Amino acid sequence: MPGKTIVVGHSYGGAVITNAAAGSPKAAALVYVAAFAPDQGESLGDLDGRYGGPATKITVPHPVNGEAAPELSIAADKFPEYFAPDVPAAQAAVLAAGQRPISVAAFTEQTGEPAWRTLPSWYLVATEDRMIPPTGQREMAHRLNATVTEHAGSHAIAVSHPEAVVSVIDQAATAVR
After folding, report:
1. Hey, where are the domains in the chain?
2. pTM of the model
3. Coil, strand, or helix at residue 83?
4. Which of 30, 37, 36, 33 lies closest to 172 in space, CA to CA?
5. 75: left (phi > 0), else alpha (psi -120 to 50), else beta?
6. Could you read off the pLDDT of 74-95 as tens digits, one per residue?
7. What is the pLDDT of residues 161-173, one digit of tens each?
8. Alpha carbon distance 150, 166 (integer Å)
9. Angle between helices 134-143 and 44-51 (to 10 degrees)
10. Domain 5-176 belongs to what architecture?
């Protein structure tokens, strides 16, 4: 994209933007949507354990190339309850069936120097999230000095309340113009 870019991450995507935008001359701001926001040296597993997320309790292994459990996904029968309780059941079932497993390494790799140390940040707290508890979201948002918006919604807030997500992205874009 030409010019500056607002970098947005949801869930695990928060760790992605935290690392990928670090030192990028194109990144203008970060927007975390019910997302992990790790600090240097932290992993997603550290944060999930600290904030009481259910990830290890509701995941199922997916062998790849004969290896034992190198990837995980949310158990289909747990997905609506934990990830998308405010999404219609049929739509939650489609989301569960279409989820891409995540590498175990994504939960164990440590974060480098976080982009949020140098970029302005916004955080949308999903107040009914059962994947990353709202208390943890608030703590992460506080430590990165983010502009915080809270909205009732599950971890699937981008599906159940897309207007809330768009509003926060618009706030960030307006602020860094």
Report:
1. 5-176
2. 0.92
3. coil
4. 30
5. beta
6. 888 999 999 999 999 999 999 9
7. 999 999 999 999 9
8. 13
9. 120
10. 3-Layer(aba) Sandwich (3.40)
